[in-house]
C-alpha cells in the first residue's frame, strides 16, 4: 500500500512540472485553458487567448538581466512576419514564439507543483504583441516550471549575439 501511495505521489509531482514541451504543460506555462481572453494586473500576465498560434502582428521588447543584479540588463527587440530585430537569431526566436503563441507569455499557475531546482539568477521581461495579442511577461530560472517557460523561449531570451 505504501509503495502505491509513493508511486501515485511521484506521478502527480511529475505531471505538475510538465515534460519540458511547452505545449504539454498548460498548467505551468499558460494556466488553465479558457475560451476567452484573460487579464490580470500581476507581472507575467497576458490578455491572450490560450492556444492561439502566433502568426503575425508579433513585435516584442525583451529585457534580460543575465546575472540578476539589475545592473547589466540587455535589451533586445523582435518582430515576426517580417522577421527582424536584434536578438541573436530572429528566425529561431520567431519559430519559438509561434510554437508557444500568446499563451506562452501567460502568468504561471501559482498552484503548480514544480521541482525545486535553481538554474541561475537570470530574469527577463517581455512586452509587446504576439499574434496581435498584447503580452507582458516575467521569466526566471528559479524552479522547474520557470525553467521550462524560459527554455521554451530560449532564443528570444538569449543575450549573446
Descriptive account of the structure:
It is a single chain. With 161 residues, this protein is an alpha+beta fold. The protein has one domain. It is built from five helices and six strands, in the order H-H-E-E-E-E-H-E-E-H-H. It has helices spanning 2-17, 26-29, 90-100, 144-152, 154-157; strands spanning 45-46, 58-65, 74-80, 84-85, 123-130, 133-140. Strands 1-6-5-2-3-4 form a six-stranded antiparallel sheet, covered by helices on one side. The radius of gyration is 16 Å and the shape is globular. Residues 1-55 have low confidence and may be disordered.
What is the helix tally?
5
Model regions low in confidence, pLDDT < 50 over at least 5 residues:
1-55
- Strand composition percent: 15-25%
Rounded to the nearest angstrom, the distance between the terminal CA atoms is: 54 Å
- The H-and-E topology, N to C, reads as HHEEEEHEEHH
Give the biggest sheet.
6 strands, antiparallel
Taking all Cα atoms into account, the compactness measure Rg is 16 Å
Number of strands: 6
Which secondary-structure class do the elements indicate?
alpha+beta
Strand order of the largest sheet: 1-6-5-2-3-4
* Average pLDDT taken over every residue: 74
The coarse silhouette is globular
**Percentage of residues assigned to helices:** 25-40%
Q: How many domains is the backbone divided into? A: 1
